[in-house]
Amino acid sequence: MAELNHRSRVSSRAMLRRIAAFALVAATLVVVGEAAGRPQAVPRHYTFSFTVNLAPYYAEKAPKTKVTGSGSGSFSIRNRQQDRDKTFFWDIYDAKGSFSLMQGGKVLAKGTVTGGHFGIEGNVASLTRTASFDVKLAASRFRCPKPEANLQVSDHRMPTKGDTEGIGFFACQAKMNWNGRAPVLVVKIAPTS
Prior knowledge:
The chain contains one helix and ten strands. By secondary structure, it is of the alpha+beta class. The protein has two domains: about 1-40; about 45-190. Strands 2-9-8-7-6-5-4-3-1-10 form a ten-stranded antiparallel sheet, with no helix packed on it. It starts with a helix and ends with a strand.
């Protein structure tokens, strides 16, 4: 009889462990499913800034020599949308700010931000904020009837030592991209509310 009671207690504990493990898995699936189905609350207003003192790692129809420059401003977002990869993004409105990029002591591009798109990827511990700004050029080395200029800034907040920030500039079919870490490349995109 004592052996039967011992087996009963052991199987009861094993059953409780299985139930607890199942409950934990079920709760995790619900949380993950909810997180995948909708984004967390996202602030609507942001500031941005960047400084660069680095040659682009990629340049097409543009010189691949060191560029210095900076930019800063603010923007708001609205109209949440989802792309083919199920990543959420928003339209940028009320954009205010300017930037300047110099190469070899001459203006590469200078202008103001006018709108664009904003996206967030990752979670709180590993977050990337990217603003892709439409730009009105005040001065530029690139000449074409419709430059369709774009400035992209990416703030990667990841807890890894090898993490890099990113910026890109595109105009008149020329493309330039930079990746780096402080002090040669610093990008900040932060909510204001």
